[in-house]
Amino acid sequence: QTKLAFMYDKGEGVSEDKKEAVKLFQIIAKNGNIDAQKRLAAMYYNGEGTEVNKTEAAKLFEPLGEKGDVYSQYMIGKMYYEGDGVKQNNGRAVLFLQQASLQGNVDAQYLLGTLYDSEKGTEKKAFEFYKMAADNGDTNAQSRLASMYDNGETVEQNKQEAVKFYRLAAEQGDLTSQSRLAVMYDEGEGVEQNKTEAAKYYRLSAEKGNENSQMRLAAMYDNGNDIEQNKFEAFKFYRMAAEQGNSEAQNRIASMYDKGEGVEQDKWEAVEWWRKAAKQGNKQARNELATRNIYE
Q: Is 237 exposed, middle or buried (0-12, 13-18, 19+ CB in 10 A)?
């Protein structure tokens, strides 16, 4: 029955049927099969083959966690922390998350860091578990740890260490880390100033929608600040920021439309963007409209 339950669950050798898998796991779990109990708990938690039932999931995860199953320790710890399927209880959450952390569960290490980070007087413990998770490759922990080093939270300010962990998180695609690392390379904070590296990380975060990075990268291309001037690229990134409502960017692309810089000249489009910027109080845009005797 155990083998058949997993076959239905995964669709191996038979057509996938989560409902049938749940029925079989329920029978097997009652006989004490740990693998069946763990899988059934996850299915209750995620609503696979059955309706979501966090209470039943917790009833299965907790005894498994007490027996030392690391995944179950993490899950029941998380549920106690969030008050999800059980009454919220940070004490029980810490108990299970610590056990999972000591067994190397990275998710538990990061969540425990978050828990301690949210309570007064436990900031050093938060740092300890963030560091543990960061060293094990957790992106969120790397980003948070970098921020702590960057701002001198709980630990002595250390821009070099901040750069180290921002870079680790940035290389894993963390938007916040990419944008902050770009600024640090741009301004030489904790690392030798490098405009090329700054542009690299500005681009990564700009393309994900970070407005500050869009503006900074656009300005670099616009002015040729230690990278080759490129009005087309400047317009592209100003436009991204303008569409997010940045009045400075709206004013700049209006000017570029007006002069045909990086884009085909279009006087009407210029006026439209100046109007958008002016409505947000941009003085330069208002002056441009006024000199053309155009109302906002």
A: buried
CB 245 within 8 A of CB 224: no
Q: What's this model's pTM, rounded to 2 decimal places? A: 0.87
The first and second tokens of residue 172, run together, are: 């894993």
**pLDDT of 203 strictly over 80:** yes
Per-residue pLDDT band for 266 (boundaries 50, 70, 90) equals very high
Determine whether 286 is exposed, middle or buried from the number of CB atoms within 10 Å of its CB (0-12, 13-18, 19+).
Answer: middle
Question: DSSP strand E in the chain: where?
Answer: none
How many Å apart are CA 42 and CA 57, to the nearest integer?
7
Please check the confidence at residue 282 and state whether its pLDDT lies above 90. Answer: yes
| Residue in 147, 150, 219 with CA at minimum distance from that of residue 186 | 219
DSSP state of 49: S
Residue among 17, 1, 207, 76 at smallest CA distance from 9: 17
The pLDDT value given to residue 296: 66
